Amino acid sequence: MNDLFGKWAMEVAEAELSSPLPRRWAHTQGAAERAAEVREVLGVDAGLLLAAATLHDVGYAPRLAATGFHPLDGARFLRDEHGADERLVRLVANHSFALLEAEERGLREDLATEFPLPDEPLLVDALVYCDMTTTPDGDRTTAQERVAEIVSRYEDDSVVGRFIRRAAPEIFASVERVEAALVAQPR
Is the pTM of this model over 0.90? Predict the structure, then answer.
């Protein structure tokens, strides 16, 4: 994945999010900045992470919200309208433990069958890191603060409220693994 791939991803995300959802667009740009910061731990997959971080929330775009579940809507859009790389599509579909939320929404089988979770633990963790260490406004935060912010926006018994409480330990573990990998990098 080269710089043109990242440029394409930024153009697609900007076209879909910047006007209808400026705050989501700010989060997207922040997640892309986090991806640039962790590129050393991914080596050849750094470009793929940048594209996935840039496109992870594209499914929130109003014109794409077919199911109302943004990981699935975004992945289908990238596959069907752009013929995007399969690894990229699967990362977008499964970002930040989307399978747990899909289960809450009755879409687990659809997501798991159509877009199996990539068997690339560091890449999957790195995308969680990019998403969950970025505020809705694109600023850096901790995973604990990000989860607390999400919890504050949703009722306990809502789909997202239930999902984020279930996913929180996994989110924290993913972020910790990426932070450990960053610390282990030679200076």
Answer: yes
